[in-house]
Amino acid sequence: MTASHPASDPAADPVADPASDLHELRDLIRTFSSERDWLRFHTPKNLAMALSVEVAELVEHFQWLPTGADAELDDAAREGIRHEMADVLVYLIQLADHTGVDLRSAVLEKMELNRRKYPVELARGNSHKYTALAAAQGQGGSDGKN
Q1: What's the 3-state SS for 54-104?
Q2: In terms of C-beta distances under 8 Å and separation of at least 24 residues, what long-range contacts does 24-29 make, across chains too?
Q3: Of the residues 42, 56, 83, 118, which has the maximum number of CB atoms within 10 A of its CB?
């Protein structure tokens, strides 16, 4: 597990289509659940609760570590983290599927909202919530303290 991540511009990779990747995963998960006759248990409430449990299991791998940086993890921890992240994504995709949410569109919409709430000139290097940033702007600036 590394801190780096691939290019954030999907246009940089003409083969990659994030929407079709999510649809492929959704279809795989639908088939898996359908083959086991589990779809009847996949209500939005149950899926949201299961998602919460899986997030807690992911967090457990980082509990009591100073930062959770790669150097603090052994191979078993990295594998556990990878598997829990997969579980989180599976339940998130299922929840989106059962509630009619297009995850790609939702992320794009939310990123635009975040751009407005956290303008670069106020938020760069600053961990304050947007309400504190707005208050600091109203007072003539932000000190950047965390």
Answers
A1: HHHHHHHCCCCCCCCCHHHCCHHHHHHHHHHHHHHHHHHHHHHHHHCCCHH
A2: 25/89, 25/90, 25/93, 26/93, 26/96, 26/97, 29/90, 29/93, 29/94, 29/97
A3: 42
Classify residue 97 by burial, with Cβ atoms within 10 Å: 0-12, 13-18, 19+: buried
pLDDT band per the 50, 70, 90 thresholds, residue 116: very high
Q: Are 80 and 87 in contact (CB under 8 A)?
A: no
pTM of this prediction exceeds 0.70: yes
